[in-house]
Amino acid sequence: MEFEDVVRRRKMVRKYTSDPVDPAVVDRVLRNATRAPSAGFTQGWSFLVLDTPEDTARYWDIFVGDEEWEADGWLRGMRTAPVLVLPCASKAAYLSRYAEGDKGWTDEDEARWPMPYWYMDTAMAVMLMLQTVVDQELGACYFGVPPRHEAEVRTTFGIPDGWDPIGVVSIGHPAPTGGAKGSPTRRPRKPVEEIVHRGSW
Q: Would the pLDDT of 70 be above 80?
């Protein structure tokens, strides 16, 4: 698939068929994610992969009884995803990396960072996942972990302290019909002329 087609066709898919995803495709998605840029080549990301019915059910079971979560109609479609990937970022990895000799800092002071690159770099890895999924003619959706459930997600899957799940990527074969409609069906895409500022704002 041409790159322009990948970019144009990328969208959030909220319902999937029961067809399994080829493990080789999942591996390619993850391998491509590691090609994202990272400050100092820190590569302070890790990916928790849930690709069995038992593991994905364990994830969704965390939210049983949460009326606010279950009230969202999109959840029924999302539960059909055969693969969930939780990208996790390590702030400590970046602070430690930039205290090494080739970076010139002698401490791990977080105040030196103008932005939290540990999250930004992991988010770029997520974008490569989403693009690779499209290139494989599959569907994906990126969504968040509700803060009120993060501790249980960590405990259930043994995510170590110091690794922050920045969200979830669902992967699967898009269902031909159904699934909750996303915001792009209700809001127009902003024209480039409205969001690009050349020379000054």
A: no
CB 149 within 8 A of CB 63: yes
% pLDDT > 90, the chain = 72
Sign of CA pseudo-dihedral 76, 79, 85, 90? positive
Structural domain spans, the chain: 3-195
Check if the beta carbon of residue 75 is closer than 8 Å to that of residue 69.
yes
> What average pLDDT does the segment 163-171 reach?
97
CATH architecture of 3-195: 3-Layer(aba) Sandwich (3.40)
The 3-state DSSP class for residue 3 equals helix
**Structure token digits, residue 107:** 């401490």
Q: In the numeric block, which tokens belong to residue 80? A: 């059909």
Residues 6+ positions from 162 with CB-CB distance below 8 Å: 90, 91, 92
86 - beta bridge partners? 48
Q: Please state, in angstroms and rounded to a whole number, the distance separating the CA atoms of residues 134 and 142.
A: 13
Residue 47 pairs in a beta bridge with 87
pTM of the predicted model, to two decimals?
A: 0.90
Instruction: Give the contacts of 9 (CB within 8 A, at least 6 positions apart).
Output: 1, 134
Give all strands (DSSP E) within the chain, no chain letters. Answer: 45-50, 83-89, 139-143, 164-165, 168-172
Contact 163, 157 (CB under 8 A): no
Average model confidence (pLDDT) for the chain? 92
